[in-house]
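Sequence only, no structure available. Ideas?
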Amino acid sequence: MAKILKWLVIFFMTITLSAAISGYFLYNKISVDLPDIKTLRNVKYQIPLSIYTKDNLLIAQFGEKKRTPINIEDVPQQLINAFIAAEDDSFYQHPGVDFKGLLRAGLQLALTGKKKQGGSTITMQVTRNFLLSNEKTYTRKLKEIMLALKIEQEYPKEKILELYLNQIFMGHRAYGIDAAAQTYYGKSLSELSLAEHAMIAGLPKAPSLYNPITNEVRSIERRNYVLQRMLELKHITQQDYENASRQPSSARLQSISPEISAFYLAEMVRQKIFELYGEQAYTSGFKVYTTLNSALQTAANQALANTLHAYDERHGYRHCKGDLSRPVCQKATEVAPTKIGDTLPATVLQVKNNLVTANLQDKTLIEIPQENFKWAVRATGRSPLQIGDIIRVRQLQNNSWALTQIPETEGAFVSLDPSNGAILALTGGFDFFRNKYNRVTQSKRQPGSGFKPIIYTTALEQGYTAASLINDAPIIDNPGKENEWRPENYSKRFYGPTSIRSALTHSRNIISIRLLKEMGVEKAVATALRFGFTEQQIPKTLSLALGSGYASPLQMARLYATFANGGFLIKPYFIERIESNEGEIIYQAKPKTACPSCDSNQELNRNYAPRIISPQICFLLNSLLRDVVQHGTATGAKVLGRQDLAGKTGTTNEQRDAWFNGYTQSNVAIAWVGFDDFSPLGNRETGGVTALPMWVDFMRTALKDTAEKPLEVPTGIVKAFISPKTGLLTTSNNSDGIWEFFQADHVPTSFRSNDSTQSYDHAAERSIEDLF
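Reply:
I predicted one. Tokens follow.
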């Protein structure tokens, strides 16, 4: 017997020693392959790209994972208790591994042959989520145990818990507890109730099975289990438990709502950041602060929508009775479950002479007063609506409801700071999600008469003056040939000798063509190239005088910014700065700025935009373009009650494009309206009628509380009293005489009196400077 016992002792000692040696070698082998736990000191969470206005309003987020990392100090203690109760009630006692739990799992495997879920502590879950793969092998489990023990020796419990709470998957693309609170409740962590704490803490075990959105019954069962565990661990009272467990689920899937609508610009930013950083753009937590001003962006959105609706209402209600085979009818009755632009679908419940009652899709009852649907009555003399009709409605700024329809035409609007090119507002169409084509940056439209300032800039640089007379008379180009061209003014009239000032003010086409012909097309082309146009955009024919090339609204904004800023070519930009998730500035815009007060040597400084026209030419163009507003084709802007407005309307052949390009010294803004398929807008739909109202609506906000700035006369500009009939100097007793600005070296040197031209006597008359 003693001999048997001796051999048994030797046998077990051998087995134990072999196991120890094997374990030692296995430990060493596995240790070599273990990841470095020091990487947990600087964890890089996958965080979406966030885009903001300059004043810190969220525009959009891009990225698969929704996550907002938080510090453990900012987590409510009750939420921590809920996770401890649900996931690891001995978290603060064990060394990283719950050996009792592992033993239970091992016995379960030995007795049943099945792996039992459980035994993993929060620390082990951290190792799995950050340092190891998701493979389910015994080797990986051993690594998990070894790493958990090492992590506990290296990091405090609070750090381990913070890593866990920021990394765990919570369902519906939410990672971490802050994202879960926003995704399911639209709240911050501090706003959650006890029941909501328990619901969130119950998710990590099985985010799909216990999800409150997709499986409410199971999620409540899991929530109540967590509450029960919190009660057993004395984290809550019996009363707390009873109150919370009786609560119905309040979870509703929340989207991260933009605080302002600027989707076209958000897409511009997304493309640029992806170009710079690739796929990393969507996971690195970059915060991009744009140049957008939120108040101006809101004003631009509203101005564009109002303008397109106004155009649509002028052209009648597209209501089709019983003929849905016609494409126009299919478009007219288009119904979508969601909002399109500022329009919503509704069902007509009741129709009276002065009131229409309708239901929105969420069953909200609305009333449409007669004044808000009378535009649809004009054609027939009666309301075209019937009970049961599906219509589109929109809410006006006074909160009343109006009958509307989805506009068939499109629009674009962009506003820049002319001093540096910062984009202050941009909207590329009626609804980004319906049509992502950005008309501000991507469209190639004829600028029409909006291009004429290029022609007049060239003329003034060639020695013409604002008083120079050009004959407004018929032109026939290539007579008798197949390509014969007979241009005409919009009014189809001819006005005889016309000053350059009057020609630009009233947008006389013939004058622009004659000027271009006299100067030579190549000179105007060279000017256009200076303003940033390319050779491909500019036709080398006389039609250039009428804006027959192409440009985008953003390019037109750059053109007019030159007149607004004193003669400098700025470069539009839209990203002000980029910050890392930690708040480090990794990019800061340094735009080249206009400097009207700089001398020629200072202008060569690399921080300044290049001057492309002289202060004198710029002043004269400003004077001419202000007259467009005060006396010409843009008098509709006078409702703003200011004298410092300048700009130029633009209308192309058959009214296919309607533009207004306008500015003050602090803001340049371009409004465009047209059809994407280049269909005509219709009779009398000119830039001054169709596009100008958009600009005026926007400028009401942009210029609010902004003082007027007088036009400063630069050195080298003088004023002279002239006869508008001749463009020559006249005596002070001439009742038809007017004051006109000239470059000092281009002042007329003769004057007309009693129909005779005389040499100007500098000794007998006051100097031009004295006249001014």
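The longest helix spans residues 2-33.
Hope that gets you unstuck.
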